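Reviewer 2 asked us to include a model.

Predict the structure of this chain.
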Amino acid sequence: MGRYDRFTSAQSKPRPWRVHPVWRGIGCAMLIILPVMSYAGAVEIMRMNIERRWVALPAAFMKTVNIPYLFGVPHLFANLAVALLLLVIGYGILVILYSALYSMVGPKRSPLDAPPPKRPKKRRR
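Predicted model (structure tokens):
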């Protein structure tokens, strides 16, 4: 008789679809592999930037960060910034590839699909 009784009973209904376990495994692998690859790429890009002087970076951005009781990581902030950029680009490429693949082999439109939204016509003066 509480305020949220209807909400909890509606959540107990099973979903009409199931996600294939292979897709869960691929998603989990991409969550682990793509950040590792982007950080490794960032380390290589920063190494080449130091050698060839493509972009001048401030000294505070390129300093070595010492982790207590472990070791120092050279150019940590620059590596993380470039890794974040590579990560966004990588996920963007994956989204574009996935959407193109899904549009080619995905389900076709059926009569049960919702019609496209009707937009009001603009008045011309």
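Residues 27 and 92 are 15 Å apart (CA to CA). The longest helix spans residues 21-52. We have added this to the supplementary material.
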